[in-house]
């Protein structure tokens, strides 16, 4: 019998409960997927807690997974039973052993790329593609950029991408072990933010000029410092809030240095199926070629999804988690 993690009430990690799942009849534009690996993201924590209030209850959380096509709807082309596919979706439902999925979301997994890598890193890699390839802010060789949480799942791939584009990357991390990870993934400089005020460190590294761009997924704890670390006419990309939501920002704060701020949401960039497929196919190729090197995922049984959330919220993970049905 298929099963899934269900949320019936927003709350702590124990709100995640394994239940039997009865699948609806397959629609003409859908595929039936036997999932082999399911990604875990901080977005899922926001959904479970009710902070985002984007999952109607009762509901199944989860935005990405990989698996094997079991059957296809009458109008589906380009997919067949036995195909390995991955997907990202803003309508949730990934924390499950099986599911019906809109066929246009399925992306072929290339040879040499594991289901676990795709399930735990596709959304992250597409976030990096959004941040660097969809003109959130144009990166030019020689720019100096600051990446918070540089050893995290998104952070390390973002540093790889920025470095390959010729940027000088400064990364903030919480421990010497994570500093080694950041340096191995494209950072030219690493700041241990628990030991050093990162704004002071950036000032020293840049000779007082500040950085051209800050990529901030941390939110409340770092936002004001990120503004301070920017150079004149600099740009702040806030794409997450792992430490909590950001306080309202006064325009006068930006005007002081002619700064700009963007708050991109990946799923807004994925509304167009053609753009979704293009972005997903590119990162699949980057995984296959090694242009993007994803963290080796840590497997956790699907029924123990609450443990995965506890690891994320403790901020001790620094890599990838994958649920195995």
TrEMBL record:
SUPFAM superfamilies registered for this protein in UniProt: GroES-like (SSF50129), NAD(P)-binding Rossmann-fold domains (SSF51735)
Signal peptide, first to last residue: none
Pfam family, one: ADH_zinc_N
A Gene Ontology term for the protein's cellular component: cytosol
Domain of life: Bacteria
Keyword Ion transport: no
CDD domains reported for this sequence: QOR2
Matches recorded under InterPro entries: ADH-like_C, ADH-like_N, ER, GroES-like_sf, NAD(P)-bd_dom_sf, QOR-like, Quin_OxRdtase/zeta-crystal_CS
Chain coiled-coil ranges: none
Keywords for this protein: NADP, Oxidoreductase
Entry-linked PANTHER family: QUINONE OXIDOREDUCTASE PIG3-RELATED, QUINONE OXIDOREDUCTASE-RELATED
UniProt name for this protein: NADPH2:quinone reductase
